[in-house]
TrEMBL record:
InterPro entries: FAD-bd_oxidored_4_C, FAD-bd_PCMH, FAD-bd_PCMH-like_sf, FAD-bd_PCMH_sub2, FAD-linked_Oxase-like_C, FAD-oxidored/transferase_4, Oxid_FAD_bind_N, Vanillyl_alc_oxidase_C-sub2. PANTHER family: D-2-HYDROXYGLUTARATE DEHYDROGENASE, MITOCHONDRIAL (PTHR43716:SF1). Its cofactor is FAD. PROSITE patterns: FAD_PCMH. Gene3D superfamilies: 3.30.465.10, 3.30.70.2190, 3.30.70.2740, Vanillyl-alcohol Oxidase, Chain A, domain 4. Belongs to the FAD-binding oxidoreductase/transferase type 4 family. This is FAD-binding oxidoreductase.
């Protein structure tokens, strides 16, 4: 530990674990984006709130920037440390702090994984309903930082709806206890909700009070093959009107090809351009009968070409793998990703305009898209041609993303649905937020982090 600043930190914060080996700097200095080379000063792994506070105060005095770090599963560069920042990893702060059965509140440290929270909730006979494929590695702190959504937003909403309270270390080292689990609290600004989606730019989330709910009723999973793009929203409207949906996820035939090559099992023989994995309540036998009638209505209208209903938990898991395995199956190609959101009512018109834009602007590139039809969230993955240099590929994608952002603006959408802004989407924030909003956001950031040490360069400069 040759850097005198780190020697000072180690002396000041007894018990703080510091990593400086190159392999550790690379591992902790990046997230799932691979566009920036990690170059952190060091990695700090506190185990207590006091250590977090002391580290933040040291950083203020020394003028060292901090990148708060969870599971680093983000796709927008929000957890990248490429300019000599100190990575503040919360992975050692992964304990369950308590459970209140009366309030149905589970209090956990920020470094606990989403999957561990699911297991703890299940042990109490309850459910924490936020869920997505990275559940085994993402953390609650990271989920809060990006207001993570996932595959069941159509039924349960995003992370924001399930945060009853937060404990946060602000940019000046002060400890804030926000909302304290209250259901009703009209005593001024709700700073808890301000922290949700702030990407570590206002404070370091150290613990959270999570609301739990009843487990969902028994569900049935169905895979649908659709003959054309217009059928997507038609089928969603049909299913939402007559079934109690828990999830409604779609992907294209191109996406299917990649996930099958990655080991998923084919469930339907004939190829169609679009597919949907739908999950709905199936408490009684009549629910299944209604689902069959709805399916037949879709076939009769020409919106559904084929389908299959899972006959076992294993088959349901295999159908879900077709959707949840997509990100992993595309990862070796290092795609350029867009994560966008619109009102559901705006989806039909936008989809046509988007598809035309991508076909025209990416004549040499394969575009794979999928997403959450039920909440208006699309994931667009652009795959680089083998003969194109990375710099040229990124420049081309950034040019097209500006056009996509302008299209989103016209349709009232957002350039980020659930992955945050980070570094990747920073140039396009003005397509979603007005100049007045951005100015206010800067002002808020300055209040919580007066010296600008928390995740600098993320969201905006």
């Amino acid at each position: 530990m040759t850097d005198p600043r780190l020697a000072d930190l180690a002396a000041r914060v007894a018990g703080l674990r510091l990593l400086t080996e190159l392999a550790d700097l690379i591992h902790y200095g990046r997230d799932w984006t691979r566009r920036w080379g990690p170059a952190p000063l060091a990695v700090a792994l506190p185990s207590t709130i006091a250590e977090v506070q002391a580290t933040v105060r040291w950083a203020n005095e020394r003028g060292v920037a901090i990148v708060p770090s969870g599971g680093r599963t983000g796709l927008s560069g929000g957890a990248v440390a490429a300019r000599g920042e100190l990575v503040l990893s919360l992975e050692r702060m992964n304990r369950v702090l308590g459970f209140d059965p009366t309030d149905r509140l589970l209090e956990v440290e920020a470094g606990i994984t989403l999957q561990a929270v699911h297991e703890v909730a299940r042990g109490h006979g309850l459910l924490y309903p936020v869920d997505f494929a990275a559940r085994g590695s993402c953390t609650i702190g990271g989920n809060v930082a990006t207001n993570a959504g996932g595959i069941r937003v159509v039924r349960y909403g995003t992370t924001r709806e399930w945060i009853a309270g937060l404990t946060v270390v602000a940019g000046n080292g002060e400890l804030l206890e926000l909302n304290r689990g209250l259901v009703k609290n009209s005593s001024g600004y709700d700073l808890r909700q301000l922290m949700v989606g702030s990407e570590g730019t206002l404070g370091v989330v150290v613990s959270a009070q999570l609301e739990l709910t009843d487990p969902p009723p028994p569900a049935q999973t169905m895979l649908l093959a659709l003959p054309h793009m217009d059928a997507l929203m038609k089928v969603f409207g049909l299913f939402r009107a007559q079934l109690r949906l828990q999830a409604f996820e779609f992907f294209t035939d191109v996406a299917l090809r990649y996930v099958l090559a990655h080991g998923a099992q084919r469930a339907l023989d004939a190829d169609q351009p679009f597919y949907v994995v739908a999950e709905y309540d199936a408490t009684e036998e009549c629910d299944q009968q209604v689902a069959l009638l709805v399916f037949e209505d879709g076939v009769r209208e020409g919106w559904i070409a084929d389908g299959v209903i899972a006959q076992s938990e294993a088959q349901a898991a295999a159908l879900w793998r077709l959707r949840e395995g997509l990100t992993e199956s595309l990862a070796p190609r290092q795609p350029y990703k867009n994560d966008i959101a619109l009102r559901i009512s705006a989806m039909p018109a936008f989809l046509h305009e988007m598809q035309a834009l991508l076909a025209h602007e990416y004549p040499r590139m394969e575009v794979v898209w999928f997403g959450h039809v039920g909440d208006g969230n699309l994931h667009i993955n652009v795959l680089p041609p083998e003969d194109m240099e990375q710099a040229a590929f990124l420049a081309e994608c950034e040019r097209v993303t500006r056009l996509l952002a302008d299209t989103l603006r016209r349709h009232g959408g957002s350039i980020s649905a659930e992955h945050g802004i980070g570094l990747v989407k920073r140039p396009y924030l003005d397509s979603t937020r007005s100049a007045a909003e951005i100015a206010l956001m800067r002002g808020v950031r300055g209040v919580f982090d007066p010296h600008g040490i928390l995740n600098p360069g993320k969201l905006f400069d």
